[in-house]
Amino acid sequence: MYALVEDGSITKLITNPKAMVIGDVRYPAKIFQLWSGSELNAIGIYEVVTNSTNFKDEKWYINTNESYAFADNQVTRSWGTATAKAHADSLYTSQDNTDDLIPDGKSVGDVKTRGLKYNLIKDLKLQVSNELAKTDWYITRNTEKETAIPSAISTHRDAVRTKQAEMETAITNASNTPALETLYTYTEQDDGSVTRPLGELPTLES
Q1: End-to-end CA distance of the chain
Q2: Residues 6 and 77 both lie in one domain
Q3: Which of 67, 114, 156, 159 could connect to 118 by a Cys-Cys bridge, CB 3.0–4.6 Å?
């Protein structure tokens, strides 16, 4: 991406380099490929440098709109300070009631907006359901035909539920959004493995 700077101000962002008129001169699109940075700068065109210091994972944060600035002979694209998404549910308050913001069927203390914890646990339950569904047929066969369930299958299903409980507890006990993010962040260990604090659900293959 490039920007056109005129009289010290950014006047145009150039996402797709093409022929353009600057002042009274028409320049072909190929200048973006053939000219050096200093040659482009001489006519007011600068390649945009991205500063993503403040840009955070949108799974956990709400980023500000991007902004562009020209300073020290450089055009920089950046973001303001990101806001962490709510980790817990928000509830309707007495003030919401006073402001007539509570919909019919709801009252003070009811859930207004679900937080990250609720949605993460909801996703986890779906993963558990999908994993257990792989061996549900053993349960059905046992019910219909009284065929014994292999011990390895029973052990696996118990392990899935045990790990589910551990993971739900870890999610529930996370004190804030950064703590939740840490639970889900993979890092390389000393032995070369890549793991996350939350761990993983057991799979039948493992």
Answers
A1: 46
A2: yes
A3: 114
Residue range(s) defining the domain that contains residue 25: 2-82
Q: Would you place residue 206 in the very low, low, confident or very high pLDDT band (cuts 50, 70, 90)?
A: low
Quick check: is 12 in a domain?
Answer: yes
**Bridge partners, 4 (sequence order):** 12, 45
How do beta strands 111-113 and 90-91 pair?
antiparallel
Strands 74-78 and 45-50: parallel
43/27 Cα distance (integer angstroms): 10
Q: For residue 191, what pLDDT is reported?
A: 94
pTM for this predicted structure: 0.81
Q: How far apart are CA 201 and CA 166, in angstroms?
A: 10
Collapsed DSSP state (helix, strand, coil) of residue 27: strand
Token pair recorded at residue 132: 């257990």
- Report if residue 103 sits inside a domain: no
Tokens of 135: 């061996």
What does the pLDDT look like over 168-178, one tens digit per residue?
999 999 999 99
- Alpha carbon distance 110, 136 (integer Å): 36
Residues 10, 78, single domain; the answer is yes
Domain assignment present for residue 157? The answer is: yes
Separation between Cα atoms, residue 78 and residue 177, nearest integer Å:
23
Domain assignment present for 112? no
Count of domains for the chain: 2
